[in-house]
Amino acid sequence: MGLQQEPHKAASNGPVVRTERVVRYKECRKNHAASVGGYAVDGCREFMASGEEGTSDALRCAACGCHRSFHRREVETVAAACGCSSDDHSTPRR
């Protein structure tokens, strides 16, 4: 049997804390004037997928036509505590 990871605990007998990562793609950073030695972006403020998840169009922006990799990636970590009380885990049952 392999190693298993346990959810993070706030304290030795505190609530179980789970973390989720939410990824959003913000403004487009593609330099459209790079070939002539300049700098110009198109003004696209946020990535919007052109197609359904799992298709190649899901990686193309509907607003500016650029690939998702040109958009600034923003990762937000959200922590959520379990609703169980800490007394349930600290007192052995008989």
TrEMBL record:
Pfam families: ZF-HD_dimer (PF04770). It comes from the Eukaryota. GO terms for biological process: regulation of developmental process. Keywords: Cytoplasm, Metal-binding, Zinc, Zinc-finger. GO terms for cellular component: cytoplasm; nucleus. One of its GO terms (molecular function) is transcription cis-regulatory region binding. PANTHER family: MINI ZINC FINGER PROTEIN 2, ZINC-FINGER HOMEODOMAIN PROTEIN 2. NCBIfam families: ZF_HD_prot_N (TIGR01566). This is ZF-HD protein dimerization region containing protein. It comes from Musa troglodytarum (fe'i banana).
